[in-house]
Design goal:
By secondary structure, the chain is α/β, with parallel strands linked by helices. 41% of the residues are buried. Helices cover 18% and strands 35% of the residues.
Length: 221
């Protein structure tokens, strides 16, 4: 197990970080998906008893990753918000941006982002399918990613995996031909359970663990 894994996706060196993020050194860009800001507030407002502090915890983790990588770009690949805007959540997000003035935050809107107002959040609103270098950055995975037009990097599915000897299910990066699916960044999410026949790298308690088919240091087409 390790805290980071060096990968090559579509020929590009990438770094998977154990706290559910992917870093693209060539662009100095930190990539996450499914932040779901304000989810706890929305659930409590609906009368569902869930602990408070989830947003603060996730933003503290994101702050640590931005410090660790010195990223000049932060891209959120969908579901930046969980639903409606919330003043306290928005203020905490703006405080994170203020702590990293050299980093520009951008969002590919996801299915939960109907209430997103880019100017209010201080972000750049990206198109639904952004092509940059050998990649296509999206929120939704493609049913068939054949690599035409670029290797897809996306989120949405919240993939999780079981690890031998460790209880529970752990967020995981999925490596497919022509497509990489990021784990949900928010710690307060459910997940889609992966099969052992799929190639994945799980993020478990600050460490990474891949199954036998995970291409840790090989090119993923």
């Amino acid at each position: 197990m390790s805290h980071a894994a060096e990968l090559r996706l579509a020929g590009e060196p990438m770094r998977l970080l154990a706290d559910r993020a992917l870093y693209w050194p060539a662009r100095e860009r930190l990539l996450i998906a499914d932040l779901h800001l304000g989810k706890g507030d929305i659930m409590r407002a609906a009368g569902i008893a869930v602990p408070s502090g989830g947003t603060r915890h996730d933003l503290d983790r994101l702050h640590a990753l931005l410090v660790q990588t010195s990223a000049r770009q932060l891209w959120v690949l969908g579901d930046f918000l969980h639903g409606r805007r919330h003043p306290r959540v928005e203020a905490e997000w703006r405080a994170l941006l203020a702590a990293h003035p050299g980093c520009v935050a951008s969002v590919v809107a996801g299915n939960h982002d109907r209430a997103l107002v880019a100017d209010a959040a201080g972000i750049v609103h990206l198109p639904d399918d952004v092509r940059d270098g050998p990649f296509r950055f999206r929120h939704l995975p493609l049913e068939t990613a054949d690599g035409i037009g670029g290797h897809v990097v996306c989120g949405h599915l919240h993939p999780v995996a079981r690890l031998p000897g460790l209880p529970g299910r752990h967020p995981a990066l999925v490596l497919e031909p022509g497509q990489t699916i990021l784990p949900a960044f928010s710690a307060f999410t459910g997940g889609y359970l992966l099969r052992h026949t799929q190639a994945w790298i799980a993020c478990a308690h600050g460490e990474l663990a891949g199954n036998a088919d995970a291409p840790w240091r090989r090119d993923a087409p």
